[in-house]
Amino acid sequence: MAQKQPVQKKPNKSKIRRISDWLHLWLGIASGLVVFHLGITGCIFAFQKEITEFIHKKEIFVEVPINRQTFPLRVLKKTAEKALGGKKEISFISAYKEADRAWEFGTYKAGDPKAFWYFDSIDYYDLVLINPYTGKVTLVADHKYEFFAVIKMLHWSFLINHPIGQQIIGWSTFIFVFLLISGMVMWWPKNLKKSNFDKSFKVKWRAKFKRVNYDLHNVLGFYVMVICLVLALTGMVWTFQWFQTTVYVVASRSITPPVQADVKSDTTKNITANPFDVAFNTAQLKFKDFDRIGMSPAAGSAGTIYATGYHGNETYWNFDVLQFDQYTGKLLHRKNQSDKNAGEALIGMNYDIHVGAILGLPGKILAFFGSLIAASLPITGFIIWWGKKKKKKNPAAVEK
After folding, report:
1. What is the pTM for the complete model shown?
2. For 138-175, b where at least 16 C-beta lie within 10 A, e where not — what string?
3. 62 contacts 53 by C-beta, under 8 angstroms
4. How confident is the model over 376-391, as pLDDT tens digits?
5. Which class for 371: exposed (0-12), middle (13-18), buried (19 or more C-beta within 10 A)?
6. What would the pLDDT profile of 81-98 be if each residue is shown by its tens digit?
């Protein structure tokens, strides 16, 4: 009579590993819906520039005359304000180096600061596009309800204006960072034999659903781990002041905040010529090699006119700033990108890194797929847990 072979028991996991697995499971379940939400909204927002330019191609791109003569900026500003009914003052302007782009004129006014919902916290937020050569308005948009603006705020705080919205997002993101690290520990093969290599780095598409789902969770999670970590950590910079401070201190190797120049307009001066146009013309000369210029009118009697020169039509990290006297248009101060310390520069890059725009289209493609797979991880992880739960309820079931 053949003797039964003793059943070999799987080696016991260490206590730390068991705790890590337990936390991975229950923290994943607790934060899963938020991570799914962040992944989906991140996917949708990734190509917002390309989609917007496709939908509004006729409004965004204009015909360029031979002489390329544009209207004075103050005239275009008044045209934009007139298009908004004459009761809203333009607060920011974007003028592009690309000759075939309409210029953007925006106006914003905050609503109730104590409002719970995003829409109630904004009185108005409008955007006007104008052909700078003809002075013709090509588009008037209520940006408060614009699709991608709403998606951005959903991603930011569930459309909640109260701090609790960002706290939910922030702590769920914090948990997601732990899940990525603990998931890597669980995924790591004990040795790199071919069989283990295939299990760890390849999806077994011809297997049953249960195995394919398991591979989608583990294998795809491994491939996007670095991307997801970057997305998560840059997101945490906005949510937690302590984390942003830590990033700044580590990058700058200093606990001293950057010095901000205190520049003011001379209130004893009388307005001469057209100071806003003077400032813009100076900015165009100073920023010849920049891709766009952002102009902001002065706020208050001692405020200054700001001109920001950006390298890139979409990114925000690489910029120089000029400040002008609002009464004379005289250049008072300039701060260049090269003047910033490493901490300022890294914090300034945060948005462009988060959306992938810092690497151009390839970066946005990486951000898109990273967000998509991040959104799938709570789903595939839940299916794995549910399958194990059903198996425990039916111990007689034999895995084939």
Report:
1. 0.89
2. bebbebbebeebbbbbbbbbbebbeeebbebbbbbbbb
3. no
4. 999 999 998 887 766 6
5. buried
6. 999 999 999 999 999 999
